[in-house]
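Field guide to reading this record: the first block holds the primary sequence, the second block holds the structure written as discrete tokens, and the final block holds curator observations. Each block starts with its own label. This record concerns Asp23/Gls24 family envelope stress response protein, catalogued under organism Amycolatopsis keratiniphila subsp. keratiniphila.

BLOCK 1 — SEQUENCE
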Amino acid sequence: MTREQAPARQLVETVIAPPVIAAVAAHAAARVPGVVRLEPGLRGLAGSLTRIARQRIKGLEPAPTEGVRAFVEHDPPDVRVEIDLSLSGLDQAAATAQAVQRAVGKAVTEATGLTPSAVSVSILDIEIRGGLL
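BLOCK 2 — STRUCTURE
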């Protein structure tokens, strides 16, 4: 949430909803090399289905947020992001998770002006292909 002065000395309040932050985070995380996909999990699926249904009823095309949860506190302003994902077995898991944290933090800050206090990454699966084991 940001507050700005409008031209006529009116106070304007901008509220950025958690699904917006989640969509920005999902897009940034999915673009990190080594990330195979975001994993919604059961909790994420239930919330995602409800959000998608509401947006479709309103005639909106929902941005993908599966596997990402965003939490926004307004007073004082605080943003936290949780991401569940699957990684490629070809990359080091810890390095990829750190790259996701950096990419998501930067993307959320650039898109919203809010810097996340925490970006938590949970690796739920590592895909190993081509007989590496």
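BLOCK 3 — OBSERVATIONS
The domain at 2-127 is CATH 3.30.70.1350 (Alpha-Beta Plaits).
The chain has one domain: 2-127.
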